[in-house]
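## retry 2 of 3
previous attempt timed out at serialization; input unchanged, resubmitting
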Amino acid sequence: MNRSALKSLQTVLLITASYSLAASAQAPLGFSDHSLNSGGYERSYLLYLPENIGADPAPLVFSFHGSGGVPQNQVRTSGFDKLADEFGFVAVFPAGAFTNSVTARSWNANVEPGVDDVQFVRDMIEDVAAMVSIDRSRIYASGMSGGGRISSRLACELSIVLAAAAPVAGLQYPDDCTVIRPIPIIAFHGLADRVNQYEVSENSRPYWRMGVETALDKWRQANGCSLAITDDRLSQEVRFYRWSECDAVAEIHFYQIRSGGHTWPGAAIPENVDISGPDRVDQGIDASRLIWEFFSRHSLP
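## retry succeeded, writing output
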């Protein structure tokens, strides 16, 4: 090999090695912090890639924290990182940046002036897709409280992007919602929730615009579900409702927790927390695992 050819080969190998290092640096396994500009705002999210992530496109699960929280809160609450390890999906824990009348670090679920969280999700999808191969037919949104409200908004506005949604303690049906396609919904709510009350009342917070059963019925109509319902009592505490006669297999699952507070069923309970109080965390069901089982059955057509 002459000197010129050798130099050309060395250049090619150097470029290839540099590209490989850059690609691996873009998508490290485990947790990594990321930021991007979305609609003129600097936004951030926590990405989790499990070690068993393969070459095939992977499902993508968004998990939104409650109002006033941070992504690490939602990691601990949902445990989706552990489920990602088990089932090989990509998990994203976004950071809220909206300030409403109640708190900061929230989500703009009612579309008020400020950050555009629907666009933020679109931008995160593209940002993650540039780092790891994702299955665009299997993108999902879940969240707790305010994260549940933004999941409800996303289910409406991104029904052709998301395969399913899972609001926990935050199911709503946006006032201006017109879904493009029926979208499967799984939701959880406690009858003893003092923050996002099961039935809306005069002292409900201004963002909480309807009771849970009203929201469920609106989603039932949007998904073209009949009134036929399966009603199972799973335990003394938990009743499971299912609407399955829906358009485009857009079933709706709902878990009602009798003594459940403003909590995520099955979440790990920190030490020194009174599990019998008004913020009782029901341990009879594992919301995260039920959500993933539900998600895994649904993909975009």
